[in-house]
Amino acid sequence: MRTAISITSRPLDLVYFAFFLVHIPATLLIDLQALYPPSLTPHFIRALPQFYVQMSNDPLIGSVLGMLGDSKPFIWFKTFLAVEVLFQLPVFVLGARGLWRDSRSIYVLLLIYAASTTTTILPCLSVLLTTPITSPQTIAEKVVSVTTFQRFLLLSSYIPFFVIPLIMTVDMASRLSKLITTGIDAADNKKSS
User: Fold this and answer.
1) Fewer CB under 10 Å: which end of the chain, C or N?
2) What's the pTM?
3) More confident position, 25 or 189
4) Which are the contacts of 158, defined by CB distance < 8 A and separation ≥ 6?
């Protein structure tokens, strides 16, 4: 049996652990408000995405919450939010627990999570990068737009949710490959002796 190594001695795992812990309240307090009825949400919690959208003009969150017009074109994003609650949120808890315990059995789940998340964040980044910059024309035509500062703010908040899972995908695939190779070599050695 292998001795667990402290999470503070495993820098990447510590980053993943912190990422999961930070992601839990962000998911529950902001992202998922598009999925559950406002009547179930205390007013002070409903104010969080309102403040966020006023500050950032996030076309994704603002649209699915109906703050920036019709939410129907963003049904794909609402589907991603459903994946976030049904799959990702449990992974945040299980992943943090597995990483804390230095459990290698969590690697498969983290690989699936990371690859899935990287794939779903990419279209979100595309929306942010193609949202028009605010101008007299976008204001006159009531087109959802962002200022240069808002685009910077949005990208600086979304990019880590792309980069960390991308690194995690490569890292977990590498770890699993090494474990599989070790297992195959052990099986081959056992057959030879």
Assistant:
1) N
2) 0.91
3) 25
4) 121, 124, 125, 128
